Amino acid sequence: xxxxxxxxxxxxxxxxxxxxxxxxxxxxxxxxxxxxxxxxxxxxxxxxxxxxxxxxxxxxxxxxxxxxxxxxxxxxxxxxxxxxxxxxxxxxxxxxxxxxxxxxxxxxxxxxxxxxxxxxxxxxxxxxxxxxxxxxxxxxxxxxxxxxxxxxxxxxxxxxxxxxxxxxxxxxxxxxxxxxxxxxxxxxxxxxxxxxxxxxxxxxxxxxxxxxxxxxxxxxxxxxxxxxxxxxxxxxxxxxxxxxxxxxxxxxxxxxxxxxxxxxxxxxxxxxxxxxxxxxxxxxxxxxxxxxxxxxxxxxxxxxxxxxxxxxxxxxxxxxxxxxxxxxxxxxxxxxxxxxxxxxxxxxxxxxxxxxxxxxxxxxxxxxxxxxxxxxxxxxxxxxxxxxxxxxxxxxxxxxxxxxxxxxxxxxxxxxxxxxxxxxxxxxxxxxxxxxxxxxxxxxxxx
Length: 447
Prior knowledge:
- With 447 residues, the chain is α+β, with helices and mostly antiparallel strands.
- 42% of the residues lie in helices and 18% in strands.
- The two termini are 49 Å apart.
């Protein structure tokens, strides 16, 4: 045994993606791109590494602790981006004169956080963000909620809740409760309530110097449930002494009204006072999205308004709002719910190989089918038919195209559908038009 061989392995929290994992991942990203584009969002990209001062202090103490950072070969303190929102704020502040406002962008790329491993969470993961910079309009808030709604629907979910709150309401009520000096700390604790439970959050709040009566007020506030109208009415009865809280409540009321007017499924939207979002830069409406069939996996699409974030990099007022699709977490949930096909190929058709004397014809047929927009693989070797069918089945091919000497002599091919086992003989015209038509009809029926 060669002692110099390095053991192949990955770092904890990092992973490889074989085809059966990467194919649905890419399809999900393309679905997200299509939804973003339908609302007029344009793509950008930013570096994986930023100057450390660009990133630190922009999310929370937790994200600062989780950040991968080091000194590079030039002696510069640098960090790997922990999300895509902070780099966006830097990007817009740097290029705003060329971009024009409002600026709507989407960005799909990897981010890194050295956090504790758990189901559906890794230290390297893909975020899929969309944001609008340069507008304080309630229309942008509502559009953000609508994009989340359309994303989940396009991916294939019907039963989900987009939980909506407003940091103005929370901040104002905490001020009303006498906790203005502890707002950020309290909100981070409240954000853990659903996972950690009331008892642990109570202990954490007590350690932060929050009184028992104040803790009771906080817990009562975030425990309010009911229809959107009922929740808003109960909040109106609490937010009586603070103008900032009333402003946040008015925004929630208007968002709920406009969502209802949009024609979207109202059952997918829920006003929820417990939603705080742990990141410090949120200043207005905030969102979290829960799958009803897999709520324990946490929010799969979160975000909110951050009117002051870009102000760290420029004197210009650049308000923003956006959200991030937790793509890897969503894929983990879809796998648990058996929503992902176990395919290891991006193509639709496998052309079976009966020998090198037919290879030129196979390549011609494959090209004609590809020109119609379908994916085709020509099996490279002349092996037994059963072995080639097994290959097709293992990789999830929908159909095999069989054309041996007898079929080609009759100017025909045989289509064998792998799921149903049905077969059909199709004439091979000069441009393979009939073959393409049969393939498209079969793929539609097999879907």
